[in-house]
Specification:
The chain is α/β, with parallel strands linked by helices. It folds into two domains: 224 residues, Rossmann fold (3-Layer(aba) Sandwich), CATH 3.40.50; 206 residues, no CATH class. Helices cover 33% and strands 12% of the residues. It contains 17 helices and 14 strands. Helix 5 packs antiparallel against helix 6. The radius of gyration is 24 Å and the shape is globular. It starts with 10 loop residues before the first strand and ends in a 12-residue tail after the last helix.
């Protein structure tokens, strides 16, 4: 069937479940193709990796919406566009994924196995509408595009399979595995201050330290939890409640201070305004309320935040009543649950077995997360989701082994462009990281030569000012265009050196 600009039907390719063993099990991997803008032999194939989610919800937008940066990229080069679904996500899993999936079935959910899927697919790729054109990597350049975990995969694909992937765009790619990722919250702290919410940051810090001390006393801790969430909340552990308090930051990486009713702007505006005064309320000064009214005042305001319980219930799948509903009905406010969302289960497995990325409290002067959300508590989430996995889950920390396998932030694949947002929490584990303990590489101000790897001390990339996670993939974010343009110019240069087995040229 010939595809149109308006739609692409899901297609499936049969792949080995185990690329590195002798087993014969296979599974079907889902993908979508847009070829209506293809200009013929020599023009690239672009593959957009959907990563740790079902690709079905975004494939149409990526391939056909004029606001999609990926469609714009594919069309500008007259290429074929593919949206690729990662194994064990969406409909690309050998088994149904739920809380009851046997642990032995997760054996083949590894980053190495998932990377190996792509070459098998690429070297057998063809289209009915172009039967005479060799679309495999032998004659056609394949370009891998991804952001976040798919951004990691973009870099790893070029590093591991350069004969398959000719060039890569790695956006917001935390390629350095790290078990303890408390650093996640440092860009949030910096960003809030940079965006003019310093008083809110100071009050969150003061309230967190104050509540940490309260939670050291069992009876006081129970009252505190019920103050925020209502009946039944006091039975939750301090670690779980600490994770609940952290939920105000859930929207940061995608929206910064925005995010509508559950965004940080809304929360900070509430926290820093005395709603008892009319009209409009009195706003806290630059040092926040805690410096004058005390931290208890801030805690009480936080507990009254109208959207907090709604956010918690949505995030944790609970039915907490909240502090204002004094009814005889006790809502389900047990927050320590296994997730039942298939994509969350699969990604938790990958985090627990390979990458870590455990977002524990950033203890210190910039602390905005409760110390009860410790590394031990974060690890317990893995144990809770996979209670019988002790023979399967590796000894922690496992990040050294993972970085040995994939290279961490020292990898410098040729024909690869890296980007990241200034206040992106995941930039901290990217080669673009500015943390004191990061490599501190120099950003190149020129396009490197085709097929030439960089030294570890430098990298071809761009840090987008006042941006968070994958903001270069948002066409509505003006400053992201510069990042996309750098990659486009680089790709135009690199394509000139592609050697086609059939003599095609771009």
């Amino acid at each position: 069937m010939r595809r149109t600009e308006e739609t692409s039907l899901a297609e499936y390719v049969e792949l080995p479940l185990d690329h590195f063993g002798t087993g014969h099990r296979t599974f079907k991997n889902r993908f979508w193709v847009a070829e209506s803008g293809y200009k013929g032999a020599g023009h690239p194939v672009f593959i957009y990796d959907a990563g740790e989610s079902s690709a079905g919800t975004s494939a149409h937008f990526r391939l056909h919406n004029k606001l999609s940066f990926f469609k714009q990229l594919v069309d500008s080069f007259g290429g074929i566009g593919i949206v690729w679904e990662h194994r064990y996500y969406g409909e690309s899993s050998p088994v149904p994924i739920d809380k009851h999936t046997p642990l032995r079935e997760f054996k083949y959910l590894t980053s190495a196995q998932a990377l190996a899927d792509v070459p098998v697919f690429a070297w057998n790729f063809s289209r009915e509408n172009f039967p005479e054109i060799d679309l495999t990597p032998a004659s056609t350049p394949w370009i891998f595009v991804g952001g976040s975990y798919p951004g990691m995969r973009a870099a790893f694909m070029r590093e591991t399979y350069p004969e398959t992937i000719f060039a890569s765009y790695a956006s917001s790619a935390p390629v350095e595995a790290r078990t303890n990722m408390s650093v996640y919250f440092e860009p949030v702290y910096r960003g809030l201050n940079a965006y003019g919410f310093g008083n809110c940051t100071k009050d969150i810090h003061a309230a967190i330290l104050y509540m940490d001390n309260i939670m050291a006393n069992e009876s006081a801790s129970k009252k505190l939890k019920e103050q925020f969430l209502g009946h039944g909340a006091g039975d939750n552990s301090n670690g779980v409640f600490a994770e609940v308090l952290e939920s105000i930051f859930y929207t940061w990486q995608a929206y910064g201070v925005e995010g509508g009713l559950i965004g940080l702007r809304n929360f900070c505006d509430w926290l820093e305004t005395d709603e008892t005064e009319k009209p409009g309320g009195k706003t806290a000064g630059a040092k926040g309320w805690a410096s004058t009214e005390g931290p208890q005042y801030v805690v009480d305001k936080w507990a009254r935040y109208p959207n907090f319980v709604t956010l918690v219930n949505a995030a944790f799948g609970t039915d907490c009543e909240g502090p204002t509903k004094r009814t005889s009905r006790h809502g389900d406010c047990s927050l320590a649950k296994q997730t039942s969302i298939p994509a969350s289960i699969s990604w938790l497995w990958q985090s627990c077995t390979e990458w870590g990325f455990l977002q524990s409290a950033n203890i210190g002067d910039t602390q905005i997360v409760s110390r009860w959300n410790s590394l031990e508590y974060q690890r317990s989430i893995c144990d809770r989701q996979f209670p019988d996995a002790s023979p399967v889950l590796p000894q922690w920390p496992q990040d050294v082994e993972t970085n040995n396998d994939f290279g961490g932030w020292d990898i410098r694949p040729s024909n690869t462009f890296w980007s990241g947002g200034e206040f992106d929490p995941w930039r901290t584990l990217s080669p673009l990281s500015s943390e004191d303990w990061a490599p501190q590489v120099d950003l190149l101000n020129y396009i490197p030569a085709c097929n030439v790897s960089m030294a570890k001390s430098e990298i071809f990339g761009y840090v987008i000012p006042n941006a968070q996670h994958c903001y270069d993939f948002q066409t509505a974010f003006a400053d992201g265009e510069k990042s996309r343009n750098i990659f486009t110019r680089a790709l135009e240069k690199w394509l000139k050196c592609f050697k086609s087995a059939n003599g095609y040229s771009y």
